[in-house]
Specification:
This protein has 435 residues and is an alpha/beta fold. It is built from 16 helices and 13 strands. The protein is globular, with a radius of gyration of 22 Å.
Amino acid sequence: MIPQEIIRRKRDGGTLPATDIDAFISALARGELAESQIGAFAMAVWYRGMTREETVALTLAMARSGDMLSWSGIGKPIADKHSTGGIGDNVSLMLAPIVAACGLAVPMISGRGLGHTGGTLDKLESIPGYDITPDAARFRKVVDEVGCAIIGQTGTLAPADGKLYAVRDVTSTVDSVPLITASILSKKLAAGLETLVLDVKIGNGAFMTSLEEAETLARSLVEVANGAGVRTAALITDMNQPLADAAGNVVELRNCLDFLKGSKAGTRLETVVLAFAAEMLMQAGMVSSLAEAEAKAREALSSGHAAERFGRMAHALGGPADLLDHPDRYLTAAPVQKPVLASSDGWLAACDARAIGMSVIDLGGGRGHPQDKIDHRVGFSDILPLGTKVSRGDRIATVHAADETSAERAAAGLSANYEINENAPALPPVIVARI
């Protein structure tokens, strides 16, 4: 295998055979390629794109670059969900225990915050003792006994993806649909999944801001995943406002516990969680219709079985046994809490969701650099949804901050972020499309 020949063929618009792609990615994983060659390959793909067959081959090669998990003997359908990321997007925290209570096995490998979006692992690390990097034996034991485990990616799972992404990040090739597709799906394939549902976010708080972009990525992900042997569907969901009524780590963890206890009924968050639960149960062949699937998911919630699964998962991975009963003992609150007030009378008509995510980072709840430590306590709670009628001085959110100065700055910024109109706004549905 001559790397520069593979790069040249893709640079000139050629279609690479699976054997060449596999050889290139294998050499990348072994550390045999120069960074310049990896960057040139990424740029050639960015400019020339890839066919569906090439993208499938790239995804499989990256998945096979490290360990491939096996769930033989579990005796349940192996399922997962992935989101492209947003603000207040804590769907995974509730979704995994809900579908586990319905009979699925969910080995969910999640990530940290990326850019302005929050990370599932950062939220779970708000729980004292929760181990996001258990060894393989413990991971399997928790999935087997509880039905779900949410952990982080290990260095042995799709390692070629990490090496390729590091170069993409500094060569302006992150936004290539084939490379995004292979990056997301290689880790899912390595996790040994049988079925997958994808949440592709669209809006000012998402990485994809137009429906055309979101549909292109969603179709690529669905087609490639199915082509690689994993039954997959995708929903495109709205991210023009925070999904939950909280944005941050501890505040979103509290939101999760409240949801599992039944206090978030009728919200946009509930709509999305139940829609994905229904999709997961349908993909796994557990039900004959989405309506039956949603009813099954609602029963897992109302019966308390989903909450019980979350508590067992948290404890099995090192967290306290009584987290659900006594969250205040373990979820540390920020020392300063300050209301965010409406600047005028009218209807909450619009906001910049990305700016809200950046405000969480400014408070210390996210990272400017990968090595940064975060303050799990900070963020926003009690966020009113768009379409709410308010009067001047009404509370539209609460800031949780480490000190008065940052609290005042965040409150002023969030208040100014919201557009308040005389008339009720026409808002998009939270579920925009199904692919």
